[in-house]
Amino acid sequence: xxxxxxxxxxxxxxxxxxxxxxxxxxxxxxxxxxxxxxxxxxxxxxxxxxxxxxxxxxxxxxxxxxxxxxxxxxxxxxxxxxxxxxxxxxxxxxxxxxxxxxxxxxxxxxxxxxxxxxxxxxxxxxxxxxxxxxxxxxxxxxxxxxxxxxxxx
Length: 153
Hints:
Blueprint: E1 9-10, E2 13-21, E3 25-32, E4 37-44, H1 52-67, E5 76-82, E6 86-92, E7 97-98, H2 99-106, H3 111-130, E8 144-145, E9 147-148, E10 151-152
Antiparallel strand pairs: 1-2, 2-3, 3-4, 4-6, 5-6, 7-8, 9-10
């Protein structure tokens, strides 16, 4: 089933593909046409645009993300609206896989690798805590593993 946003242009972004969806939002891979850079765009689901509590949660997410600048946390590039129908967050695009996908693919992760992941997650959470932010949804879906040279971040 073709997604109606794929192939469309959102201001400076061309939507390339839907890369994830959850209860509150859909995430797309997009290309910034002026910078020739790939980004991730998260859209609040249209059926939730009528519900103020979801709009407020999406706003809070953007306000929190913009304050967090850390190697182990995703970076926010932009937050905006298009008319009254689209609310979106533009983030850095991460190439890799979620911890959930890794666990499904591998079945288990060696202790040494698990400790490296746990340490990096802890560093990211500590940076958030220093800003007074508590992450309430730590899960394998929200931990993303990105190859970086011989290592993984």
